[in-house]
Amino acid sequence: MNDSQNMQGGAQMSVVSRCGATNCRYNENEQCMAGQIEVDFSGQMAQCLTFSPEDMMGDTMTMGEGTR
């Protein structure tokens, strides 16, 4: 689930309100602590390009429905 906040100049910024990638080093209690994230979409699937596993053994994770 994402929330939008107004930024200076009328632009909007999306805020990650919950993250299901519990093995990501930026995930603390299902909250994303990354300074910013990059997401790519393919069909109805979202891929978090910022995902970094805690064990540093991968580079991306595909997030399915119900995981935001």
Shape: globular
* N- to C-terminal distance: 6 Å
Percent range for helical residues? under 10%
Number of helices: 0
Q: Main β-sheet, in a few words?
A: 3 strands, antiparallel
Order of helices and strands: EEEEEEE
Strand order of the largest sheet: 5-6-7
Low-confidence stretches: 1-7, 58-68
The percent range for strand residues is 35-45%
- Whole-number radius of gyration? 12 Å
Structure summary, number of beta strands: 7
Q: Which key features would you list for this structure?
A:
three-stranded antiparallel sheet; disordered N terminus; 37% strand; two-stranded antiparallel ribbon; disordered C terminus; 0% helix; 68 residues; mainly beta
Structure summarized in a few sentences:
This protein is mainly β. 0% of the residues lie in helices and 37% in strands.
What does this molecule look like?
The protein is globular. It is 0% helix and 37% strand. The chain has 68 residues and is mainly beta. The chain contains no helices and 7 strands. The strands form 3 sheets. It has a 3-stranded antiparallel β-sheet, with no helix packed on it. The protein has strands spanning 2-6, 12-16, 27-28, 31-32, 39-42, 45-48, 61-63. Mean pLDDT is 74; it is low at 1-7 and 58-68.
